[in-house]
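INFO batch 0412 | record 1 of 1 | parsing
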Amino acid sequence: MTYKTLMAHLGLGQSNSELLRVVAKLGTQLGAKVVGIAPCQPMQFVYSDGYVGGEAIAACQDELEGELRTAGTEFRDALKATGNLLEWRSSYTTDALPYYLASEARCADVIITSVATADPFDSSRHASVGDLVMRAGRPVLVVPRTSARFPFERIVVAWKDTREARRATLDALPLLALAKQVTVLEIADKPDVPNATGRAEDVAGWLGQHGIAATSLAVPAHGDDAAQLETMLTEQHADLVVAGAYGHNRLREWAFGGVTHDLLKGGRCALLSH
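INFO prediction complete | emitting tokens
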């Protein structure tokens, strides 16, 4: 099993250099086709007593078209030397961007994206990572804005005995197979640590059946699980964390967004599946 097609989602109005650096190297490592994509919504105008003239609307249209062209040029310039098969898609859509990206992901094995540095609340240009993961039906590899660690030599599977974690671990097999060190980590309540040890060992054994040497580790929880996970990832010198994504409603989406930022600390990438 490997990834044959990578979909690289470029944000508009911002540099995508770090994302494209990882995409270029991963695409070369896997010999994969790379599909670049940059959707946007037509700008929305809020009408009150004022009047928005045709010139203002045309100027906004020109601005978006310019950003789409810039993203396409950035994509081709960053990847043209790799020798990979490339395809570029840019489009206006009336759909929410996560919905549009999820539908386009039918052609890819994995979506590679990053957290917006421009206005993260501008839903016409930027897709919520959490919404994208929930909708995609594909794993989403999230790349930090700077200093992304690559290659993924040390990978931690953040295990919970849930369908989302099982899905994420299966989705990550092509990356796990390339790693030099894989650790299956579960943080559990102290009374449950013996059971967690058995679960982590099961997952490590399953990975072994796929030719992936993995170690297992179960530790007792203390305090904030997210903070403890970050500490464990730092101790393991993890380049990539594999995790299931949980939550559906907007309140959980806010929390999920915070966890995503935590997982990206220290230049670490995160592969998330729902």
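INFO post-check: The chain is about 40% helix and 20% strand.
INFO record closed
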